[in-house]
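Researcher: Re-running this chain for the archive, since the previous output was lost when a drive failed. Same request as before.
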Amino acid sequence: MPLSEHVLNMRIRGRFWRIFRAVIFIPIIFCIWTTHNYSAAMFILIALILSWLNNYQLKVQETEEPYYQLWLNVIEGVLSFTVMTSILVRKLIKDGDFEKLLAIGCVCLLVRFVAHTLLSLSVLREGKTLPGRHSWSKFSNIAINVTMAVYVLDLERYMQICMVASILLMAASSIAFIYWFYRDPAHRKPLSIASQLTMTRIVLTPFFLWVFFYDNDLNYSNNHIIFKILALVMILGFMLTDYLDGHLARKMGEVSTLGKYLDPFSDKISNMTVFLCFIATGYASVWMVALIYFREASVETLRTLAASENVIMPARRSGKWKTAIQGIGIVIILVGALDPIQAIPGFTSIWEVLPTAVMGTITFVTLLSGVDYFIASKHILQKFV
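Model: Regenerated structure tokens:
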């Protein structure tokens, strides 16, 4: 049934303002890292106003196509998590103090985002309609934006109050959505082993932050040897599960649309978290991680455009090489930071340039991979240009 002109116009305007809101997060992240606090707070306020416009004026949840709506939510979720994580890492750099409540908020935001995405995909795969964004979800999004602004402005008097309110509202919105999901018996479908391995990688990623900064010291070299080894083991575990989930999915005939989207997403979440840790401890430059993030966000936008045309964009060989080189580079840096390696005669002079050289290689390969994706997907871009 063709859409009315009014609904079509509402949909186009909704997409424009949601994409514009997503773009706003880029200067927010930039202002956070360059300590332009008032500018960051101003952009957060703009994002909050746009959120109100989308939810209450344009009512994008009622007019947008389901898959397009879902992947716009994914982009906004990734950006919100990146902003919160950037605030956490910046506070580590600025104050040298690990903000535990803020870290808990980051974990809650990630878990809520991942769970909502997975359950929504499951519903859409069954050909069912997602519910509109309920009040708890709208309130929690408002609270998250306000909390971001409070932390950016360093309003210590209100930080804990806002963060606790955000965590409680996120919990309430998650419970409301899960209740809606599980009250329909048709939704009670177990995840495959491959998807469970991928989910494990996502869930354990926030714990890497705690292990990496266990001693509350930005200088990772001062961390206890046990936690250095544990961080290395976690990264090796991430790499192993990354291999196993794809291998098992193919071997057991469980290759799914969910897995094709979830696997690259989990790689980005885990690796970007590690790179943010490397910024804090001086192993990576901000511009390197910014370029890596730009590539990842651009490819995810490309996936969103493909999904809107009912096209699944699988991982390319260059993307697999990129992920492998990122993992190997991370391992090299973490191994080089181990006390026994640091004690090797003459290694100190090598260590002065090794992290920068490794991260430079990772950045170069990552950008090349992004170019390859765009060249290979030009037929998708031509539909929108």
